Amino acid sequence: MMMETKKIKLPHGIPDYNLTEIEREIPTNEPPAWPVNNELKVVGKRINRTGALAQVTGTATFTADVLLSGMLYGKMLRAEFPHAKITSIDPSAAENYPGVFAVHIFDNMIEGANPKDTEQHDYPEVKYAGQPILGVAAISDEVAEEALQLVKVGYEYKDFVVDLDEARKEGSPVVFTTDVDQEASDGGEEIEEGLKSQGNVRGPSEGSFYGGPRGDLEKGFTEADIIIERTYRTQVQTHVPMETHGVVVDYNKGDVTVYASTQSTKGVRNDFADHFGLQKSKVRVIADFTGGGFGAKHGLGNFGVMAGHLSKKSGRPVKLMLDRKEEHISAGNRPNSIQYMKLGAIRDGTLSALSLVSYGTAGVGLGAGVGHIAQAMYECPNFKMQQYDVFTNAGPGAAFRAPGNVQGAFALEQIIDELAVKLNMDQLRLRDVIDKSTIRKVERQRGAKLFNWSKPEKAGSDEGVIKKGVGVAQAHWPRFINLDSTVEIRVMRDGAVEVRSAVQDIGTGTKTILAQVVAEELGLNVEDITVLIGDTLFPIGPSSGGSIVTGSITPPARNAAYEIKLKLLDIAAGRLETETENIITKDGFFIMKDNPDKKLHFKDVLSRMRTEQITATASRSDDYGGFLNGTWLGYGELGSVQFAEVTVDTETGFIKVDRVVAAHSCGRPLNMAQIESQVNGGIIQGVAYALYENRVMDKETGHQMNANIDFYKMPYSFEIPEIEIEMIEDYGARTSTDATGIGEPANIATAAAIANAVYNAIGIRIYDLPITPARVLAALNKVKKNNDE
Amino acid sequence: MKEKKSNPRQTGSFSRRGFLKGAGITAAGTVIASSGVLSLHGQAPDTNKTLGPDTITISMKVNGKMRKLSIEPRTTLADALRIKLQLTGTKVGCDRGSCSACTVWIDDLPTLSCMTLAVEVGNREVTTIEGIAKNGKLHPVQEAFIEHDASQCGFCTPGMIMSTAHLLDENSNPTLDDIKSATRGNFCRCGTHPKVFVATLDAAGKM
């Protein structure tokens, strides 16, 4: 069936730069174009966060807060050795311990990579220290913990490896003896299927959804006037959401309710249904408030499987929240990387060749690729990347805010900075030559103005011990879309307006923007809208990953509201005795265009409905003008440019990030306050990645040395830089809201901008993250380099 | 690579429960007294009596109301509030005193409830995030957090507010550094700090 379409004009481009209108063919049942933000009343404004009142008064219910009648507490026994075969498990003493209601032993692991061998084992093989083995459900956390101490496990220990360099060596202990695969999560990481492993090294992956290699590298390097060849290293970073992973499962005779701290209600629902052989409609997943995710909370997880079995066996609800140590060692991390990068350029700055060979370890998982930003951001006719995953005996990695791009930007944006220095060119001027993105061009201009950027002084030229430096770096993130984004809107005779979707809000502000979009369409205030989300009883919603939610869920929200509006216009037209075309909605009224004194209050119109309730449901339609790839990759991009100013104490090596200016775009911005919050968060996580965070594994025992918040260094109040944000409206005319998310791009460029600023301050470039005082002093030849770091 | 044959589990571990079971509340009381908190307030529990491991009944004044609760002596104040009194606004982020999400006031002194045993409270008064709005009116810091979008996921928010509201109750004209100092123990992964600072400064003007 051909979809009926109509042609409309929509805003296109960047205000005060190249804003114009463009005609697109859109489905007939979709609303007319919104004008640019300054002509709207609710959208694009600073609107208080929906749920903030509950958050500040302590009444917001997170999964960690769920208390059900008869609820038990689950805990898991975790392997204390990083690589072993389990020969026996005797849980009898735990089963008989007073207060214990159920014990369950895992028969397989659902996190990380899956070996292809089909050989049956009694128990899963232990592949990292902290891998769960069994769980108990008891009347309290403490009793569960005590019961775990009584379980006897027999191990046959094997050699292990936790270090990326060691794992690559011939003769290293091998983590997986057969080829493995892993399904990517909704977090935006890329995993190429079917690649072979040699020892612990899997790959190479030479392409991405942007395609494969381009041109002829050798020719490109022959043509180059300047060649720069460097090795960059980034560390393993753990997600550390404030609320750990966890669930409460109420397995009530096959009608299961799962409260989950998750960024994907549908992901948890699907995993649970798969694992327990249930129809999806038998599993209800609820995530009212989720205490952060950052990419690691997309699925059910081993802990969720365990809680399911314990609840099923005990017949009672079971809460299983990871503790902080379990969170660090088993619940995901950003893989580390070694990136061998070689850049060739012509004297005018044009890039002639770029090659990248990268290795990274996601422990027992896949997803350590970093090359996609190098492939996508700059014009370079000759490009090749070879990305390798390396297995180690450590907890599985997970998507982490702009997976791959954060690591990749650290290398790419430093090598481009180095090229600018070698060419004696302003870093922004060089990017004007090599970067064809319009949005980043405008971001460079406006960001530079706000930052007061001028071509930096010669690196290290500050006199004295304390040196200042400035740096800039750019980011690219694709416009991902998920068509599994559906919104139901209900209006009721008493004036209630409800928005329902399974999509969750993990601190990203999704509840607020749904209320804004619907309020704008109906001419109401956000306070008039009740947003009920985070529940799989409602229509399916996208996972909160890859900056996908805003661009996927707000168009159907607006479209459903528009359908409701058309029905209400009919009622109003009847009452006002005019045509529907002669009525506008504004400030809670239906007003006659040609006689504005004649109007009806919204509630008045609702009270005239023939039925108690009117419902409209809309699903995400295709992008206007189609997709770049499939139905999931849109045209356009989320570009950003960040500027950093640092102070380096050359006697102590101490670095303080004084100021960050961030120029960003996310299509049509929906809520400036929440966008600022997201960008602040991305930058602060970027500062942490640049200077502090580092998962330290002990090579002798295979355990993480700093699996807590005290020794896993992160920024607190005194480490927070001054942040200024330049938000640029970038209309793409792709959907009825034309909005996109901003979680990922906020986090990509920061570490590279800081590294470039550190170089500018001290005159020596640091290629390894995190840039600790020890590394600064080693770079300045003030202390001996510590090879173990 | 050295082969590890020994089982690390055999080296033994030391849990809060095990310590209290072995030592009884007398020893715990001694440890706590040496930290100065109890001696400062003169509220040491009856050290002649050995408590536990069975549950005991204590009274505790929380948010202005006297509550009786049945707890094990090892129960932390955080768990007593969250599980026994169902005041789940107080969050536990690390359970070892390094994130401050569990901050409550004990007699107006910001205290980490995950590092405090419920039995330590004695007859001092506990105030939680649920208790700082007075007569249905939010504390100015709560208002300002909403106004300035100082929360994202909201999990650190109660602790942030207990720290900043205490600051303003003591000092209605703080500098930015005072605010940073008051929240220096509050960990936030979403990066709300800049807005926490702005909100607190703004609330100070409305105290």
Overall 3D form of chain B: elongated
How many structural domains does the protein architecture of chain B include? 2
- Helix/strand class of chain A: alpha+beta
Count, helices of chain A: 19
CATH architecture of the domain at 426-472 and 633-789 in chain A: 2-Layer Sandwich
The secondary-structure class of chain B comes to alpha+beta
Biggest sheet layout of chain B: 5 strands, mixed
How would you sum up the global shape of chain A? globular
> What is the CA-atom radius of gyration of chain B, in angstroms?
19 Å
Molecular structure report:
The complex is a heterodimer of chains A (789) and B (207). With 789 residues, chain A is an alpha+beta fold. Chain A contains 19 helices and 32 strands. Chain B is α+β, with helices and mostly antiparallel strands and 207 residues long. Chain B folds into two domains: 16-129, Ubiquitin-like (UB roll) (Roll), CATH 3.10.20.30; 140-204, Orthogonal Bundle (DNA polymerase, domain 1), CATH 1.10.150. Chain B has helices spanning 16-34, 37-41, 77-84, 140-147, 157-170, 176-182, 193-204, and strands spanning 56-62, 65-71, 103-106, 109-112, 125-127. Chain B has a five-stranded mixed β-sheet, with helices on both faces. In chain B, strand 1 (56-62) and strand 2 (65-71) form a beta hairpin. In chain B, helix 5 (157-170) runs parallel beside helix 7. The model of chain B is unreliable at 1-44 (pLDDT under 50). The chains are: A alpha+beta (789), B alpha+beta (207). Chains A and B meet through helix 1, helix 3 and helix 16 of A and helix 4, helix 5, helix 6 and helix 7 of B.
Features:
heterodimer; A: 789 residues; Aldehyde Oxidoreductase, domain 4; 7-stranded mixed beta sheet; 6-stranded mixed beta sheet; 26% strand; globular; B: 207 residues; alpha+beta; Ubiquitin-like (UB roll); DNA polymerase, domain 1; 2 domains; 7 helices; 35% helix
